[in-house]
Specification:
This protein is α/β, with parallel strands linked by helices. 40% of the residues lie in helices and 23% in strands.
């Protein structure tokens, strides 16, 4: 299986950490590494779908018990409830330091207060990097399910579109762009749109 340079970098960090002795914190093999975050909001409830990296398969480092699903969904009335819900139902620490793509539902973008809560919450998290690319879709679950079937993770695939395709690179929107527009203009940006065609996640032109 072909492994991209970014995934190789994550694997290298995990292996290096495994070789260190006496270090504090949660051991790397007891962490989960989402490469994509998908956000939705409906009927007063937030939902996030974590697109996990399959580092167990890539590093051959086994974990005790069952694996976390590649497309894990957690719901809550706030980001705090979502964090608590993950902690109560999952055995591995959630490491958000490698997120490459953030996907918003169109429904979320149509609700400014809910959007504000998500954006401000992510800004307060030092783990989530500002260089992650941002997308929108009106078929969130379908996009995430199609992403689970890809050889690379969905986050890696979407990042690769901009890093490897020169003709679309300038159209990319990052979390830094989203933050700037909201903090300085109070405006919700219209990021690139995703849809599923014949089982494949595709990037569309903005409407």
């Amino acid at each position: 299986m072909k492994i991209s340079q970014k995934i190789k970098g994550i694997i290298s960090l995990v292996i290096a950490a495994l070789l260190l002795e006496g270090c504090g914190g949660v051991e790397p093999e007891k962490r989960e590494y989402p490469l994509a975050l998908a956000w939705d909001y409906e009927d007063g409830e937030y939902k996030v779908i974590y697109g996990m990296a399959d580092l167990q398969e890539m590093t051959k480092q086994g974990k005790e018990g069952e694996d976390t699903p590649a497309g894990l969904e957690v719901r809550g009335g706030s980001l705090e409830e979502i964090q608590e819900g993950y902690a109560k139902t999952q055995q591995y620490y959630l490491d958000l330091g490698h997120v490459q793509a953030v996907i918003f539902s169109q429904r979320l973008l149509d609700q400014p207060r809910a959007y504000q809560h998500i954006v401000e919450g992510m800004q307060e998290s030092p783990e989530v990097g500002k260089n992650a690319y941002v997308f929108v879709t009106d078929s969130l679950e379908e996009v995430m399910k199609a992403g689970e079937l890809k050889e690379d993770s969905l986050g890696e695939y979407l990042t690769g579109i901009y890093e490897n395709q020169m003709d679309v690179r300038e159209d990319g929107v990052t979390l830094e762009d989203i933050y700037f527009e909201w903090n300085n203009e109070g405006r919700i940006m219209n990021p690139p749109q995703l849809k599923v065609e014949e089982g494949q996640v595709v990037l569309c032109e903005n409407l």
